[in-house]
Amino acid sequence: MRILLVEDEEGVIRFITKGLSEEGFTVDSCPTAESALQQIETQKYDLLILDISLPKMNGFQFLSIFRKKEKLVPVLVLTAKDTLNDKKQGFELQCDDYLTKPFHFEELLMRIRALLRRHIKESKVVEIGNLRLDIGSFKVFIDDRPVSLTKKEFALLRYFMANEGHVISRTQILNHVWQEPYNIGSNVVDATVKSLRKKIYIQGNSFKISSVYGIGYILQDEQSL
């Protein structure tokens, strides 16, 4: 998952970038709203973290322009502006969450993951690298080539894509995809992952489902590593 951080304080940039990178995210940063507007013209992002007190154009002005270009990308406002009027203005300009400084990194991370889960759940089409999953039509494409999956394989792939870059345990997969508790003697998860891998494997793919010994699996877009 790629995140754009629009922030002008070097210490905050280093702190957030280091923390999110360790959690598997790719983070780009822009110190001004003007440079951020240029950045989004050439790069797509899964989420924006936006400060309000920026030099020249402020964060509210940026958000107003950004929402005319991108209706669906989640925006988390991260700012020292903590009045009710500030928060009201942010939500009226269609930010998705509002967190005030100072903040705990763990809370920022929880909010980011919640926004991404909600965004993917609401999105009809999810893309990672050259892999595209259309939730509405129950179809999967790799480089525009259709791939036929069973219902469980489709649900499993959708769950992997919603948690891109994060290790998912077999217990989590069973609870979410099969909606039943983990049976240590069952290999249904491993068997379904094996079948899914065979169907979506093409040489040159930008994404990969890897095993994590003793835990579970992780889907990663290798282009963003």
Automatic annotation (TrEMBL):
Species annotation: Uabimicrobium amorphum
Name used for this protein in its record: DNA-binding response regulator
BP-aspect Gene Ontology terms: regulation of DNA-templated transcription
Superkingdom of source: Bacteria
SUPFAM superfamilies: CheY-like
Domain Response regulatory positions: 2-116
Matches recorded under InterPro entries: CheY-like_superfamily, OmpR/PhoB-type_DNA-bd, Sig_transdc_resp-reg_receiver, WalR-like, WH-like_DNA-bd_sf
Cited Gene3D superfamilies: 3.40.50.2300, 6.10.250.690, Winged helix-like DNA-binding domain superfamily/Winged helix DNA-binding domain
